[in-house]
C-alpha cells in the first residue's frame, strides 16, 4: 500500500479512539466534581507523553521486524512460549473489545444527534456486528480505498472542530466558560487520578497496527511503515490534546445522554451541517475501527493454530480468502460482551486498558531482550526507547488492573488466565497426538519392495484409459447390479504420513483395487517434503500432490475428485480418509472434519463413496509395532 492509503486504513483504530478516550478520562475525574476536573490537563499531558514514548518504541519494532512484528511474535521470539501466549491473550481481548467499544461509541454518536433510537442501543449494536460479520465473510476488508474515506473525514472533522473551538476561545481571551457544578461522589486522591489516567490511555488502542502490517507497504517497506507510524502518532497526539483543551475551555461535563464530542460540536456549529458532519464522520470511523479487528484477530488466531495452541480449523481460509472461522468467533465474542455490558462505552472501558497494555508491555519487553542480544548499530538508543515504552505500558497495565479491578478489569484478567489454560491444554493434546501418530524407525520397517518381487508400476495399478474412458467401464449411470460390474478406484486423501495414514493406506490396499494417494500441500516446500517422505516409505502407490497456497483443503480435494469422475465416468470412486478418534469428546473438535464436508460437496455426483478409517487416540496407549513382512 502507498502511505496515503495505509495511513487511514491502518490508523482508523488509533485515531478513532479520540472519540471516547478523552471522555473516558473525564468520566472518572468528574466523580470528584470541579476539583477532579481541574486535573484534566495534567493527566492528559501524561497520556500524551505516553503516546509519544510508545510511538517511538514501535518505530524500533518496525526496524527489527521488517516482516511484521506483532506482540505475539515479538514476545514469543524473545521472552519464550508463556509470555508469548500472555501477549496473544492481551491482543485477543483487545480485538474483541475494539469491536464492542467502537460499536458502542459509534451508536452513542448517532443517538447523541438522534436521541429517539437510544432505547434500542443493544439491538442496533448487535445488528452492526452482524453487518460487519457478513461483510468480512464476503471479503469486504480488501476495499482499502473505500475504508480510507471515513478516517480522512474524521481527521478533517476533528481539526475543523478544534480550529473553530480555539478561535471561539481566543475571542474571550482563552478564559474557560461558565461551568456546571457536577455532583461530588468521590474525593480527589491518587486512586482517582490513576483510574482517570488508565481510562484516558485507551486512546492509544490500535497503535501497534502498523507494526503488524509492515509487508503490506510499498518498498522500502520498513521505512514507509515508520513514516506512516510517525504521522499516525502525530495526528493522534494533536487530536487528543486539542479535544481535551477544548473540553477544558468549554467546561463540558460528560453526560449519559450526549457524548463530549457532540456537546463540543453543538457549541461550535450549532445543529447545522457542521454538526451533522462531525457526528457522521465519528460514527463512520468507529465502525471502520471495529472492522480493523476483523483483520488482526483471525490473523493472530491462525498464528496460534499454526503453533498448536488453537484448533487447526482456524488455519482454514474461506472461499473469499478470509479466515472465516476466526471471523465468526470474533463476532460471537464481541456480541456477547456488547450485550453483557448493555452497549455502554463507559462500562466497557475498564476492560479495555488491561488487554491493550498487557500486550504493549510484553512486546516492548521482548524488544529490550532483542536489542540486548543483537547489539547492532544504535542498539543502545533502540533499547532505551523500548525500555521506556515498556515501563510506561507496565505502569498503565498495573494501574488499570488495580484501580479498575472491581469495575470490570477482573473480567479481562480472568479471560487472560482462562486463555492460558485452554491454549496450553490444546498444545498438550496436539503434542500427545503427534507422538501417538509419529512413525518410529524402530517400529516400522520401510520396505523397498514386496516379497513377491518389485511392486507394480503405478500405471498397472490404475485402470487403462482408452479414448478418454476406462476400458472396463459399465456406463455413466449407477445401474450396476452385479459385483463384477463395479469397477473401483480408491482415492486415499492424506494430510501427513503418520500411523493413521499408514493404517488407511493398508486398508485401501487390502481391498485389492487400484489405489491413488492424494495429498494437499499448502506450500511448495511442504510438497517437496511430503514427496521425500513418500519416497522413503517405498513409493508403493501412485501419488498426486496438489499445492493449495490459500490453505484450502476441501475445495482442491473436490476439484481433483470431480476431475477423476469426468475422466473416468465408469469408475466408482471410493474416497478414503484417516479419521482421528479421541478418547474425550471435547478433544474431537481439535481435529479435522474433512469427511463430512466432502460428503456435502460431492453428494450431487454419482458413483462416489466417502469412507473413513478410524485411528483411536487413547491416553497411555502403547505405540503399535508394525512391520512389513
From TrEMBL:
Keywords, sorted A to Z: Membrane, Transmembrane, Transmembrane helix
Transmembrane segments: 27-54, 95-114, 120-137, 144-167, 187-207, 228-253, 273-294, 321-341, 347-371, 383-402, 408-426
Membrane topology label: Multi-pass membrane protein
Subcellular localization: Membrane
The name this protein goes by in its record: APC family permease
Annotated organism of origin: Streptomyces amakusaensis
